[in-house]
Amino acid sequence: MLKHGRSYPRKKSWTMRYLRWLQEQRFDHPAHQIALQEMVEAVRVSKERVERLERVIEEFVPTWSLAPIVWALQTLRGIDLIVAVTFVTEVGDASRFESPRKLMGYLGLVPGERSTGETVRRGGITKAGNGRVRHMLVESAWTYRHPPKIGKAKLYRLEQAPPKVREIAWKAQSRLTARYRMLSARGKRTTVVCTAIARELVGFMWAVAREARAT
């Protein structure tokens, strides 16, 4: 669209309003109009497929033995149904890890170390373990750039959760939003900040999983 001098006047793209705006665009050359309509239709079909699969997943989760963990994880900011299901599917019962640090290491979110004599140097994360889950959690960490807030969907999850899980979820949001601001203020790159937040988020997910299994 930018090549043709078309710029969406609002901030958020790929919303229903944005798709309507795309549908309203008209080009003089038929080939341009056809290309636009084909791309818009491809997005619509893909979106419907994702929504259909999400409904199927939501339908089957209640029959799963680990369903309590899936529901409890969704009290955490940045963790929706798909992230929670993917995490539990790939990791299993997170409470099986004896400590949050073990789970962080399993997901490759701990810093690597190089030792030379008495000198120990810390590097980037090891990136060992499950890359799919690690990538999703780093994406989830991006939501902590905003101040603490509980939206309608998250409020519903919190109301259904045990008191201890609610307490952990709010503690996570308060701490991680503050830490995000602090690291950003220090001039850290966004990727570094999100990775650090994802690492701590895993610790809260571990705590939530333990509480969910205990209730």
From TrEMBL:
It holds the Pfam family Transposase_20. This is Transposase. It comes from Mesorhizobium plurifarium. InterPro entries: Transpos_IS110, Transposase_20. GO terms for molecular function: DNA binding; transposase activity. It comes from the Bacteria. Residues 73-145 form the Transposase IS116/IS110/IS902 C-terminal domain. GO terms for biological process: DNA transposition.
